[in-house]
């Protein structure tokens, strides 16, 4: 029996609160209005990054919220520790958990996964001529797939942060990282040379939990979907523009 199969066996009782996993950091702030639109009212300190609590009640006794690292949201949901989550598409691409179903694009957290290199080498570089490269990234699976699809052998250096330092210190030639505005790259003498994927945050659910608690989880999917539809209609009407 696999670890994930065991997790399914140990899934929470049907009458236990559902757990919604939220990512810490920038996306947490963007989650606030979305949660409000779906009717979720978590404890006051849930969206406060200075709070040391990690699990929070909501005004719904059948829903709790947990706050975890963005890269861990998918793992919490895949293993059944949380039944619902908000997760960047970059994380879903990296881990590709079959236990996760992602029914909704929440249209928040927009950014991209990109290849970058030092400005001075990029000026005369042609990615079409690459055959072997060393790449620093926290996305080893995404990077390998991207370069393999182009016939390039990628020697991956797995880093969890400060990717922008790696080329200048001779650790690698390229980096693959998440880019929002590009200002961090520019400040460190790097520039984007390829965009691997555009990224937004998704509503994700555990497939086993969806089968065992279809009404509860299906209800939350519908509430998030209705909130998105209302937001889109508001944007289309030009109200608040």
List the helices and strands and how they pair.
Layout: H1 3-9, E1 18-23, H2 26-38, E2 55-57, E3 63-68, H3 70-78, E4 84-88, H4 89-95, E5 100-105, E6 111-118, H5 119-122, E7 132-137, H6 140-148, E8 153-158, E9 174-179, H7 183-187, E10 190-199, E11 201-206, H8 207-212, H9 214-237
Parallel strand pairs: 1-3, 1-4, 7-8, 7-9
Antiparallel strand pairs: 2-3, 4-11, 5-11, 6-9, 6-10
Helix pairs in contact: 2-9
Quickly describe the structure.
The chain is of the alpha/beta class and 241 residues long.
Overview of the molecule:
The protein has 241 residues and is an alpha/beta fold. The chain has two domains: 3-109 and 200-237, Periplasmic binding protein-like II (D-Maltodextrin-Binding Protein, domain 2, 3-Layer(aba) Sandwich); 111-198, Periplasmic binding protein-like II (D-Maltodextrin-Binding Protein, domain 2, 3-Layer(aba) Sandwich). It has nine helices and eleven strands. Helix 6 links the parallel strand 7 (132-137) and strand 8 (153-158). It is elongated. The model has no long low-confidence stretch (mean pLDDT 91).
Question: Any key phrases for this structure?
Answer:
D-Maltodextrin-Binding Protein, domain 2; elongated; single chain; about 240 residues; six-stranded mixed sheet; five-stranded mixed sheet; alpha/beta; about 30% strand
Overall structural domain count: 2
CATH secondary-structure class of the largest domain:
Alpha Beta
Number of strands: 11
CATH superfamily of the largest domain: Periplasmic binding protein-like II
Here the CATH topology of the largest domain equals: D-Maltodextrin-Binding Protein, domain 2
Helix and strand content put the structural class at alpha/beta
Mind telling me the C-alpha Rg? 20 Å
Question: Helix-strand pattern, N to C?
Answer: HEHEEHEHEEHEHEEHEEHH
Tell me the CATH architecture of the largest domain: 3-Layer(aba) Sandwich
- Average pLDDT works out at 91
Shape: elongated
Walk across the major sheet and give the strand order.
Answer: 2-3-1-4-11-5
Q: Number of helical segments?
A: 9
- The low-confidence runs, each spanning 5 or more residues with pLDDT under 50, are none
Report the span from N to C terminus: 54 Å
What is the helix content?
25-40%
Strand content: 25-35%
Largest sheet: 6 strands, mixed
